[in-house]
Amino acid sequence: MVKVVFKYDGKDDRIVEGDEGSSVMEAALANDIGEILADCGGSLSCATCHVFVSENWRERVGERSAEEEAMIEMAVDPDGRSRLSCQIKLWPGIDGVEIILPASQL
Fold first, then answer.
1. What's the pLDDT tens digit per position in 42-83?
2. CA distances to 56, 78, 86, 94, 104 from 98, in Å
3. Is the pLDDT of residue 103 over 90?
């Protein structure tokens, strides 16, 4: 299991676990993180699982693909930290990854 820390502005963090090989989005859905809507179910055809990756985790999480980049343009207030949580795969190297939930989704 890989730990994911969901950070909320002005609220307590939530730490959940997900299976290695699954996505941050899947871990969020399995643990009732309601701010992750995931309307497309992870098929990379919407931006309702938009999150920000904490600065100190960005390199380990990896870069966005061109397809993900195009979808992020549809998100509310994206920036350089933006990722789609369906595209972040869980693996031991990101155990404890900090994911910031956008204010627009709170």
1. 999 999 999 999 999 999 999 999 999 999 999 999 999 999
2. 9, 17, 15, 9, 18
3. no
3-state secondary structure of 69: helix
Tokens of 77: 């207030």
Q: Cα(9)–Cα(19) distance, rounded to whole angstroms?
A: 26
The residue ranges of every structural domain in the chain are: 2-100
Q: Provide the edge-to-edge strand list for the sheet that holds 50-53.
A: 14-18, 2-7, 97-100, 50-53, 82-84
Banded model confidence at residue 105, pLDDT cuts 50, 70, 90: confident
Residue with tokens 């204010």: 103
**Taking a C-beta distance cutoff of 8 angstroms, is the pair 99, 64 a contact?**
no
The identity of residue 14, as a single letter, is R
CB 38 within 8 A of CB 71: no
**Architecture of the domain defined by 2-100:** Roll (3.10)
pLDDT score of 3 more than 80: yes
List the structure tokens of 94. 């990101």
